[in-house]
Amino acid sequence: MKVLVLGATGFIGTSVVDSLVKGGHQVLGQSRSESSQLELARREIELVVSDPFNDDKWTEQLDTIDVVIDCIGGNAPIDTGCIKLIKKAEGFKRHATAAKLVYIWTSGVWLHGEDRWNFVTDGTKADHPPEKVAWRPEVEHYLINSTALDGIVIRPGLVYGRSGSVPAMLFAQGANSDKIVWPGTPGGRYATVHVDDLGELYRLAVEKYPLVRGLKIEGSNPSTESVDLILQRTVEISGAKSYIYKTPESPFEVALAATSVVRGTIAKSILGWTPVKPSLVDGLAIYYHAAIASTQK
């Protein structure tokens, strides 16, 4: 299939495009900078230079594209960001003989908010999202109900591995201070997923889209992980002396501190997705050193 990935050079996007290329697909990767061309070309990805929120260059090849994967909507406001991009895709007039365009949007487990006791499934309502991601349910609803697109939503858990993303913030504290200070309270748990396993989930959604169009898919490992244990293991590996919790001080920290006990089934039962990477706790020494190395020249 021919797939356009928006945010192809980002943390999640990089894994998505590499997984698609390995799967034999023709991949176009959107970036705002021409400087990405050589790196993407080396990985057999065609660069599309565009700033999707401010121009329509990324839509110019939509008549030949099978799937658009949006990996850039993490912080964009609804009115000017994510829904705007979806509407651009909806408005493109494809040839009458072409199949409906598939649009996969990246959401996240954070929209479920804090609940340490009740399971979250693929069909669980998201009626108390924290402020940081309070706009996401509306975007999900808009896409899933589109009649012009075959919409699919993927909700990754806390993504780890490689350069680390949010876990890299934790590892940096351990490497550079004696005490790790982390938002939350004892007893919290994270729904997690390795970035490589996540890339495979997107590939499977592309290849089996007729089975999951119109669905919201939880993308996390089968079991959640203890935040207490993650922090303790980071102390042991990094050389920091201790860790403490603090009251969240920003919308980001409130979202990060929340526990969601995710038990998604669609990815496994319909797509055949099986995460293979060690959990964040089990592989923490590997992931710690990978993230620290990513900051060094």
From TrEMBL:
Residues 7-159 form the NAD(P)-binding domain. GO terms for cellular component: cytoplasm. InterPro entries: NAD(P)-bd_dom (IPR016040), NAD(P)-bd_dom_sf (IPR036291), NAD(P)-dependent_oxidoreduct (IPR051783). SUPFAM superfamilies: NAD(P)-binding Rossmann-fold domains. One of its GO terms (molecular function) is aldehyde dehydrogenase (NAD+) activity. This is NAD(P)-binding protein. It comes from Cyberlindnera jadinii (strain ATCC 18201 / CBS 1600 / BCRC 20928 / JCM 3617 / NBRC 0987 / NRRL Y-1542) (Torula yeast).
